[in-house]
Amino acid sequence: GALRGLGVVAVGALGSDQVAALKPEQVVGLSAVQVGSLTSGAVRGIATDVLGTLGSQQVAGLSAVQLGVLSGTQVGAIGTAAVVSLNDKQLGALAVEAVGQLRGEQLGVMKSTQVVGFTTAQVRALGSEQIGAIGAAAIRGFAASQLRVLGSDQVSGFATDQVRVLSVEQVGSLTSGAVAGLNAGLMGALTSVQAAGFGTQQVRGLSGDQIGALGVGALRGLGVVAVGALGSDQVAALKPEQVVGLSAVQVGSLTSGA
């Protein structure tokens, strides 16, 4: 109660040592404006147990500068209910190192309107388990520029429900190196509409096992040029039912070497 009685200017004058001494029950009573008045130096002193007790309004009141100085340990301590209150610009202000330490529970509650704020450097910092923890609806919010920086290790973390919601444009934005991370189960989850997003470079980056894992409809969804880019090892991996599903034009596009 006494701490809440301090004016905004007085709270803003607190140093890191003073803030570090605060207990969770003291901070809970602070208003969003008071929390937002803390200097970046003072914010660095907030203990993890204190950060874990901050409410959604308090966290929403943090500025980009304040969020940018939080360590990975501090960011990982923020409660899931409070994480939901962060907007895209606030998420984009987090240090790259801090994003790499976001917990799966935190990523799992984020919305598509939030994840679009991640910078490409932040996206690169996400591990495969973190990628897999993001909700399918939120994955749909990723821009092509964000998906373009994903590596094969990160893509291997996708879950089938995440792959199923990708748009054809999103599929097309994955690099040839990244698509190599799609396992058989993920390849099998692709629809004909999504497969149409694959370009020739992406198709060339797929292994025979990956090609063989595509559903009949998905394989048929590949463009004529993409089918024509298949190599002999990839064609050799095709199953009879996949070949039967190809159109005459697709079959005619296969090179003599394939």
Walkthrough of the structure:
The protein is an all-alpha fold. The chain has helices at 8-12, 16-20, 24-27, 32-36, 40-43, 48-51, 56-60, 64-68, 72-77, 80-83, 88-92, 96-99, 104-108, 112-115, 120-125, 128-133, 136-139, 144-147, 152-155, 160-164, 168-173, 176-179, 184-189, 192-195, 200-204, 208-213, 216-221, 224-228, 232-236, 240-245, 248-253. The longest helix has 6 residues, at 72-77. It is rod-shaped and about 80 Å long.
Brief account:
With 258 residues, the chain is mainly α. It has 31 helices and no strands.
Percent of sequence in beta strands: under 5%
Helix content: 55-70%
Number of helices: 31
Number of strands: 0
Low-confidence blocks of residues? none
The main pleated sheet reads as: none
Radius of gyration: 24 Å
Structural class: mainly alpha
Mean pLDDT: 93
Shape: rod-shaped
Instruction: Compute the separation of the termini in Å.
Output: 76 Å
Keywords for this structure?
258 residues; 59% helix; mainly alpha
Helix-strand blueprint:
Elements: H1 8-12, H2 16-20, H3 24-27, H4 32-36, H5 40-43, H6 48-51, H7 56-60, H8 64-68, H9 72-77, H10 80-83, H11 88-92, H12 96-99, H13 104-108, H14 112-115, H15 120-125, H16 128-133, H17 136-139, H18 144-147, H19 152-155, H20 160-164, H21 168-173, H22 176-179, H23 184-189, H24 192-195, H25 200-204, H26 208-213, H27 216-221, H28 224-228, H29 232-236, H30 240-245, H31 248-253
